Amino acid sequence: MAKAKTGKPHGGLATFFTRRLIQAVPVLLGIVLFSFVILHLAPGDAIDVMAGEAGTGDAAYMAQLREKYGLDQPLHIQLLRYGTQIAQLDLGYSIRNNAPVRDLILQRVGPTLLLMGVSIVLSVAMGVLFGAVAAIRRNTLIDDLISLVALLAYAMPIFWIGLMFIILFSVTLGVLPSGGFYDVVRQDVGPLARGLDVGRHLVLPALTLSLFYFAIYTRLMRASMLEVMGLDYIRTARAKGLGAAKVTIRHVVRNALLPIVTMLGMQTASLLGGAVVVETVFNWPGLGRLTYDAVFQRDYSLLIGILLMSSILVIIINMLVDLAYSWLDPRIVAR
Amino acid sequence: MTSDSPSPLRFGPVSRRTFLGTSGAAAATLLIGRTGEAFAAETPQKGGTLTMAIWPDPTALVCAFTTSDQVLLASSKMTEGLVAYGYDFQPQPRLATAWTLAPDGLSATFTLRKGVKWHDGADFTSADVAFSFMQLLKPNHPRGRGTFANLTAVDTPDAHTAVLRFSKPSPMVMNALSAFESPILPKHVYEQGDPLRNPANNAPIGTGPFKFVEWNRGSHITLERFPGYWAEQKPYLDRIVMRVINDAGSRAAALETGEILLAGPNPVPYSELARFRSNPKFEVETRGEELLQHAQAIQVNLRNPDLAKLEVRQAILQAVNREAMARAVWYQSGKPATGPIPYQAGDIRLANPPAYPYDPKKAEALLDAAGYPRGADKMRMKLRLDWVPLGEANLRGAEFVKQSLQRVGIDVTIRSSDLPTYLKLIYTDYDYDLNLFLYAPIFDPSMGLQRFYWSKAARPGSPFVNASGYASPAMDKILEEAATEIDPAKRKALFHDFQKLAMTDLPILPLLDLDYTCILSKRVHDLMAMPEGIRGSFADVWLSA
After folding, report:
1. A53 and B67: CB-CB below 8 Å?
2. Fewer C-beta neighbours within 10 Å, C or N terminus of chain B?
3. Which CATH homologous superfamily contains domain A108-329?
4. CA dist., res. B516 & res. B284, Å (int)
5. pTM for this structure?
6. Interchain contact, A97 vs B59, CB within 8 Å
7. Out of B424, B425, B451, whose CB is closest to A56?
8. What is the DSSP-derived secondary structure letter of residue B117?
9. Is A78 on the interface with B (CB under 8 A)?
10. End-to-end Cα spacing for chain A
11. Which residue, among A130, A145, A287, has the nearest Cα to A210 in the 3D structure?
């Protein structure tokens, strides 16, 4: 990989994206196949759940529903049907929610991306800043304090932090709403007021979700900085007379960021998982909770639709991460 | 009226029995008089937005084809039934203003309300009623084929008369006509295409006091006052906003901040109920569940040769201290059950069925006599215990049962699963020993209880039915007679026989009668005017400042 001296992807950006997209096809196929099989290994189907919720289910009624939705067919026929449908870019119909899967996902993807985006930015920014400060002032009171806060944030369960925030900021102080995406009672408000309202509702969930990752980034950044600070080229940079600030920003921080970017790529995927908890506590109408309900309701088409969409998201993020590597360290070439 | 000082009318089985023992009409007057008294002090105020919690996000907004509790909660504000049931379990006019059941029980004639409009402006007629029962509810309601098994046709001699025709007398149908059991839907909207995929299932068009505005999935549902509602002046509220709040802690917080004014059933962890009861801003209600009723019991798998022995089942019931269980597991929101029919049911409940009081010594003696002495490890037998994964209280209940049985020498392994897995294990594979579950007996036992005791209700794959393998010709006869007996007195006697036999044979071990709670701000009034409570239409509900 360390051949070219430019930070550009091998063969230009267009080739890079084309190659990556072609590579993504078998990955996505594998994901569809794997999730389809593994989900159908779980006992029960959506009709069982519906009948369970109804208190009881007439056998003939349940058989009729299964026939209608093709759930009485052998697994390979169901898979074939689903595959044909996906190939036509149709995510299918959610029996449980009486709605097309695409609509269900599109309705929920916005709030999730907003929450994820803000949380990632917040946690990376705070993590890099505090990690760097801790490394520069290592073994001082500031370093100890930052490490303590990071440790606490890392150790506390997300849902508990969320509930404590609600009790403090909503119940006791009454300054922020306890949950929801916007104030659903207020009507006829302008886009600006609505935006501000969403912002107010975003504060607590974003803070909660970013605290855990902030802790990880802080610790990672501190360790990475300390490692880089001991390397030869830093000594060289100092020896050639660069000021402390320049050395830190240009040479130390930039190189120390590489593991942060790696972590960021990995965690963007897992953030969806963490979002389930935060979305539940703060009633954030996002994908996480939709996924959670889909699992327990055996809503396979919805679940696979979400998994497929998340995989696409992860593939895109991985591409961006690889590009970021080569931007941070031109010796690395994205392929 | 605070909820922690139970009024005798609401709670005491004795007084409930007394007043239901009098003639139906007198009882109804007494009841209306009393509830009226409680609220008459203030005249309803118009306007305002009622915010309430709903969880999890419903899967549809019409309860004709899917009937989970949150769907009932939403649907019942927009759609109506022919009647609604009062605290005396007698029907009261809604879409029907009068009805007569033929003496032979083979037909029921309903006079329909005139001048009723659908939310889209069309007129409501008998054609809608016939279409709803025959084309929508009977074939497509999850319980429709059972409830309406004997309903053969609905005749419509004129636009405001509907005659339900039965192949056999079906007294149960007369108790299944409420908005949340049998919502009447518009024929002109459902005529075309597959009713299960009709867009109106997610954006209902009904005759109810509130009409649909928007459903932002995962966030909220907004309903607004239907100005063309048939009851003049009603509804009082301008809007209802149902917010999806999935976490019990978050619901408690949203109640405390005033972001929601109402939540139920069982909105907050049981451990927090006391805090809300002592808060002057809130009312904790246990009314509003009388039509469904709730109970916790152990379903026993009689296919297990150990459990097939009656002494073993008696011993299990006598080994569990139900008083302590009500305290430890349900924080007093329950009381020991005497039989399958809970205390809310009135005089249909038998006062003294065979009883099995808590007596661990007796339990041990029974087990000794049945041929299960304590072995080298001090244990007599091994059993698996499943619990219905609907709420954490059931797991605590399972732990309580496990400890109780351990003490008398029954080694219990708790098995936890998610709902679909649980349903498959218990109701499809019958692969279980003891099943700690919840059930809603419903005020008509033919609807709510028959399925657990009737041998013909047992069908692999049907959840919450007879999974015990219990088949008693005597029991089948009683239940089948009760299902077609239209004389209320004879029917009641049959249900008394049913309870006696159920508590003799013990295919199910009733543990507790449960009180479900609903928490509301003191600003919310007249929610409990009818026992539908939070599943009611909210036409009478109003907000004070």
Report:
1. yes
2. C
3. MetI-like (1.10.3720.10)
4. 10
5. 0.87
6. yes
7. B451
8. B
9. no
10. 9
11. A130
